[in-house]
Input
Amino acid sequence: MTQTTHTAIADQVDDSHHPKSFISKYVWSQDHKVIAIQYSITAIGVGLVALVLSGMMRLQLGFPDQFSFIDPSSYLQFVTMHGMIMVIYLLTALLLGGFGNYLIPLMIGARDMVFPYLNMLSYWTYLLSVIVLLASFFVTGGPTGAGWTLYPPQAVLNGTPGAENGIVFMLISLAIFIVAFTMGGLNYVTTILQARAKGMTLMRMPLTIWGIFVATILGLLAFPALLVSAIMMMFDKLVGTSFFMPAILSLGENIDHKGGSPILFQHLFWFFGHPEVYIVALPAFGMVSDVIATHARKNIFGYRMMVWAIVAIGGLSFVVWAHHMYVSGMNPYFGFFFATTTLIIAVPTAIKVYNWLLTLWQGNIHLTIPMLFAIGFIFTFTHGGLTGLMLGNVVVDLPLSDTYFVVAHFHMVMGVSPVMVLFAAIYHWFPKVTGKFLHTGLGKIHFWGTFLGTYAIYLPMHYLGFLGVPRRYFAMGTTDFIPESAQALNASITVSAIIVGVIQLVFIFNLIWSVFKGKKAGDNPWNATTLEWQTTKTPPVHGNWGPSLPVVHRWAYDYSVPGVKDDFIPQNVAPDQVIMIEKVEGAENVEGMESNQKGDNT
Amino acid sequence: MTFFRELAEKPWLAENGPLALSVAQKETNQFPAKTALKFFLGVVTVLFFLFTITFLSRSQSNDFQALSGEPWLPFTDAYQLWINTGILLLAGICLQFAVFSLKKQQMNLFILLISCGCLFSCLFIFGQINVWQNLYQAGFALAENPANSYFYLLTGIHGLHLIGGVLALSYVVWQFWLKNNNKKLVDNLTLCTVYWHYLFVVWLFLFALLTGNTATYKTIAAFCGF
Output
């Protein structure tokens, strides 16, 4: 390595080129904000496709055989595509590609990502992966119906929907997505490590950035496992190797493969799949922390613990994967090990939940729409997390595995909870992105409909799971152990699901309407402390900060500091610029409050 | 470890805390591409690590026929792979000396060395393709046996990484051609060299792994607890 020195990015002069033409500004844009919006619109668009797919599944489950366009094959295809799109192409892309891109440079006080061109390439590669994925709907045999876990041998064997072409398109699309993510991810971590403004130490970063940072590292280390399994399965499918394919009798004939190990695929898949849960959850944890602190006008409780918990959860997430495979069979000692690590991961997670609650405790809570969603998240996440503790135990998991209990659990913890945070984040940061507020009345309809509606969907599913109703089945048929009332429950779940689905249209309408007709928001409508609200223009212009970069003097959570006139001090306000309350009377009280404040934090 | 020391900071004691020296410093020996390369090498390491794990696991099944150990197996005498190894080593050495010559402003030598570096890299790729051809003609086709599959797969992925490196190197040199920024070229070329050395180490590892015999795999697997 050379020992040459370099000027820190925060000390460099602004030499970014400013695009002039429409195309370089809004299409082939290298501006992180435009790329973030491109990512978000694509992700939400493909997410709506997945939402429609889930509606189709629910129609079949709630009202079996009433709809001629849903046959068993297409049902399985809907299940598969719904799962894969939601987990990877919506949640990962929106949280990291969308919010990561938008917030990282603004929150750390940088002009842009360190590699703007790579960033642009990342988005267009992601778009390509989405196009390849959606193209699989139109190939012979349709998209794959192997379940989102794509377990071999069934994923590539004839008889599984989409085994002709769909599975190939899926694997190619995943590989392209991973390339896109790696380009984006290298950009995010490098930007966070190298391009922070002066004074922005790691421990002064908002928790949003911490969440995105650790989640990106998880993604960089976990996605290779999916890439490895996708490449090897593609070889099995296309050139007849036997990495995962065992000798098997399929449709009455011996297939050409022999000796491969399907369990090996499961290990690889879940070595990616479990960290993926936290790739989605950690940015959500971070963003919800900032929303709660801002709208409760209180510093986040236990900031250091919050950071350590994010790092600890990130580390632990790599040693729990086999809890998805208890029914696949494993050495009992392994089961014991993975059950233990799974339960241990509940400790830092519980710390986070307590800290959110303690941040709210005695805060000056403003029940704005972002806050409503954030509080809703605490409910749904605690709920989903607790059922996770149940399923983490081998003996509880064995009877419940592959029932609706699991469906209810992971939708609460990984579906509803991150989506609640995404909504909180969209309502919270929309004024910065567009300069307009989202409509509050529509937002309330959206929140209560979504919050109560998702409970109406997923609470009964736990009960179906206890009854033993299996997941992924097109129709239940007649069984002794499933009472007829289960069907009534299924019908009510379907009605709730459709209502929740329709309510999302209110949200989409609100987004479009508010861009044009929304109430003007100003630069810092929530009186927030973090840097993105301190830009001089809203929406921020190319280069974000004008001629000079901000200098950071404090952490991100100076809310309601005793003795200070405003109830917030932005991060870039120097100590001598803070306006204090004129001391006329009650000075002792102020001092008393100050010592309380310190007590809270330690 | 500065990272862990930073994690112990109490940021709410804002006025007492030091301004971030790591960022406020005018000079640093880090630059973005260097940091990104470190993470990228981490990603590639994980990729090959996972392939290795699956290889070791798969090598324990009965239908796995190692590619060396008996006289009729292709890599019992792996002279062709040794030649390729030498070629890749030469490529790395050329690039390393290209950096040295660039620092001394010996531009003619630099151009010669960088061209040789690219040439040897391409030669390595062709050498590997030649190994594939010989292997195929000797009856060791891709889908015949998992050991063959892994050989084609892993050498292919290693080769793709080298091709990516050659493209990146061409881009770096092309940028120098356009902008004539000597310092930037030294930085970026140094990173390319690191990448080449890294790929050489990965190749040595793959070489050892793929040309092992059955007894070796049994020993490694027993050691790893498969």
Summary: The mean pLDDT of chain B is 89.
